[in-house]
Design brief:
With 98 residues, the chain is mainly alpha-helical. It has one domain. It is 92% helix and 0% strand. It is built from 3 helices and no strands. The longest helix has 38 residues. Pfam families: YtpI. It comes from Aquibacillus halophilus. This is YtpI-like protein. Keywords: Membrane, Transmembrane, Transmembrane helix.
């Protein structure tokens, strides 16, 4: 199962990229928009990491940890998606005014 480590690595790199991109912008609305993308990447990272650990160990403790990671990853992903759609609309409104 080489696909899970690849997804984990890509999502981790995207998370770090978005967090660094926040430092390069001065507009608070753009910072919040980029932070929502970082939350999505973090949610994917946490959820896929949990699944990967269960597939590696296949124990009952790993199952419980995987369930917790899936719940936390899903919460991060869902929150990031809601914020992403909200701030995308706000950015469109602010760019149309100018």
């Amino acid at each position: 199962m080489i696909i899970f480590p690849i997804i984990i690595l890509i999502s981790l790199v995207l998370y770090v990229y978005f967090k660094v991109a926040i430092l390069r912008t001065s507009d608070p609305l753009v910072q919040l928009f980029i932070n929502s993308k970082a939350r999505i990447s973090l949610g994917i990272f946490i959820a896929i990491f949990g699944i990967n650990q269960y597939l590696y160990y296949e124990t009952s403790i790993a199952l419980y940890v995987t369930i917790v990671f899936l719940i936390l990853g899903t919460i991060q992903f869902y929150s990031g998606m809601k914020r992403y759609s909200h701030y995308k609309k706000e950015l469109n409104k602010s760019s149309n005014k100018e």
